[in-house]
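Thread amino acids onto this structure.
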């Protein structure tokens, strides 16, 4: 009789004891494919594409995303998702889940670029001189798609997902303002993505460690003495001085930087003079510098100022250098190695491991790096290239840039899956002190 009781006990333990553990692991692996199936429903795809087209028609620059923000809030209201607004001027922060720790964030940037769209199509930009040429319209649509997926499964979330609709990524440092607002203080991890015209639809790419460079901007005014071009001896030529400055700046990378420490100094702006036979009083030059460490960024900044002022002095000119405090220095985008493993697992389950690519670092920059300085973060690239299309798609920041909307369900499902499985599997201890929670939760 005693033996039969032990047999019954063992049977009950086997039947019920391990179920939640096995189910949790099994459910976690199924979440990505289930979420992708949801995101690929025609009504969901059409809804995301419609949102993206509305945003594309009405591009807004950094900290001016008033109508974009209004559209986001309207969609969150329809879904019954609470949010905080305004954050960092025009940003929106939404919340889905238990309202309790752990907290995981997923982010999309909202701003457009100051450039004229050259693509002729039904939903071309209606605002002269402004265009969504970096795909931020699609980023917003995909994050709203992720919100819809997560809201449908809100009862299953083992924590809280924070939706970050961020303004002013394009040089404005909107991520820093979001952090300064204090709305992400207790977040344990954050994920972000960017569309890529070089990767086919259904493929993603990223890497552990340094992914994108840190960057800064500079502008310099080199002043001389204007005069007639036919009698240069009575002038002090700032164009000649600026030309020598530009050549000397290139030596900072070729002769001062470690060849194994990737750096870039590019002068992309040169303004001076307005006539063929007049030497101007001054010339304005400007550009950007890039590196993967704070030390290298600081060294470049110091040497750029020294080279400009001293090389100008050699040509009897004066120079002032402005590092544009309104465009903060961006740190390098460095992916957390544990989140890299999490990304590979989730993306592999959804897309197949052969569609998850490792990539080399790029010298582009992203203000997502500001989040990574405060919490573990992970950034990746989402393919949108049509493999059947001939030729290379126009790059981001091109007036001919276009979005392949077939990528939208993949981005939405990846956002949602990375967040939901993070809460389910990792369950980190709450980072907030006892009794400290977001007021809005």
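Threaded sequence (441 positions):
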């Amino acid at each position: 009789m005693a033996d039969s009781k032990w047999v019954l006990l063992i049977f009950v333990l086997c039947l019920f004891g391990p179920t939640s553990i096995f189910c949790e692991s099994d459910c976690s692996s199924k979440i990505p494919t289930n979420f992708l199936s949801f995101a690929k429903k025609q009504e969901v795809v059409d809804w995301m594409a419609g949102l993206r087209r509305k945003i594309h028609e009405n591009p807004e620059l950094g900290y001016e995303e008033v109508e974009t923000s209004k559209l986001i809030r309207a969609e969150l209201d329809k879904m019954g998702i609470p949010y905080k607004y305004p954050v960092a001027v025009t940003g929106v922060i939404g919340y889905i889940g238990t309202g309790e720790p752990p907290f995981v964030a997923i982010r999309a940037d909202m701003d457009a670029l100051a450039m004229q769209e050259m693509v002729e199509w039904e939903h071309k930009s209606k605002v002269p001189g402004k265009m969504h040429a970096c795909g931020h319209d699609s980023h917003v649509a995909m994050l709203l798609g992720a919100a819809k997926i997560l809201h449908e499964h809100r009862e299953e979330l083992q924590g809280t997902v924070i939706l970050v609709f961020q303004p002013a990524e394009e040089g404005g440092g909107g991520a820093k303002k979001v952090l300064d607002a204090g709305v992400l203080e207790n977040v344990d991890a954050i994920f972000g993505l960017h569309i890529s015209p070089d990767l086919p639809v259904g493929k993603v790419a990223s890497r552990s460690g340094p992914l994108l460079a840190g960057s800064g901007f500079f502008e310099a005014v080199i002043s001389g003495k204007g005069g007639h071009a036919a009698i240069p001896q009575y002038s002090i030529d700032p164009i000649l001085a600026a030309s020598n400055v530009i050549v000397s700046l290139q030596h900072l990378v070729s002769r001062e930087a470690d060849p194994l420490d990737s750096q870039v100094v590019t002068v992309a702006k040169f303004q001076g003079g307005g006539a063929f036979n007049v030497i101007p009083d001054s010339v304005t030059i400007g550009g950007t510098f890039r590196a993967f460490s704070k030390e290298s960024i600081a060294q470049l900044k110091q040497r750029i100022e020294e080279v400009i002022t001293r090389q100008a002095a050699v040509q009897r000119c004066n120079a002032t250098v402005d590092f544009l405090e309104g465009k903060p220095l961006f740190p390098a985008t460095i992916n957390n190695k544990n989140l890299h493993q999490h990304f590979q697992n989730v993306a592999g389950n959804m897309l197949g491991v052969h569609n998850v690519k490792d990539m080399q670092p790029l010298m582009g920059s992203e203000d997502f790096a500001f989040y990574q300085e405060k919490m573990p973060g992970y950034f990746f690239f989402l393919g949108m290239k049509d493999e059947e299309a001939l030729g290379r798609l126009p790059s981001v920041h091109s007036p001919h840039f276009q979005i392949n909307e077939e990528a939208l369900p993949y981005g939405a499902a990846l956002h949602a899956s990375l967040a939901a499985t993070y809460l389910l599997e990792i369950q980190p201890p709450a980072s907030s002190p006892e009794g400290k929670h977001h007021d809005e939760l």
